[in-house]
């Protein structure tokens, strides 16, 4: 692998880690890591003065996330496909899981506001699975750069 290609991957991994750190901080600050916090955030809570989210409001939030989640996933997985791991069956599994967890993370609020409160657990799970997969892919890329 060329030095410039390795350097660009390392820079992208640094920005990916900063994105993950800010995502965790914002999620904790705005919503919280509990079932009740997620339900209150989307369905509202009069006692805490939290207004309920509407379907159109969630869609306005989801639209930029669709682009950004797709972009970070595509770039990281694109880098991964150009390593020695491209022929492993587990790489294909990671690719599918990454896109599936991103889609769940973006669209579970639609389920919550439409009466499926159990989707709050799915929202929390998909958030952590997506971030864990981004971290795992980043680690695989860093490992392949160092030992290639």
Provide tags for this entry.
148 residues; mainly alpha; 5 helices; 79% helix; elongated
* Element string (H = helix, E = strand): HHHHH
**Fraction of residues in helix:** over 70%
Mean pLDDT: 93
Proportion of β residues?
A: under 5%
Q: What would your notes on this structure say?
A:
This protein is mainly alpha-helical. The chain has five helices and no strands. Helix 1 (3-30) runs antiparallel to helix 5, helix 2 packs across helix 5 (119-146) and helix 4 (89-113) runs antiparallel to helix 5 (119-146). The longest helix is centred in the first third of the chain and has 28 residues, at 3-30. The protein is elongated.
In short:
With about 150 residues, the chain is mainly α. Helix content is about 80%, strand content about 0%. The chain has helices at about 5-30, 35-45, 55-80, 90-115, 120-145.
Sequence-ordered SSE layout with sheet pairings:
Layout: H1 3-30, H2 35-43, H3 55-81, H4 89-113, H5 119-146
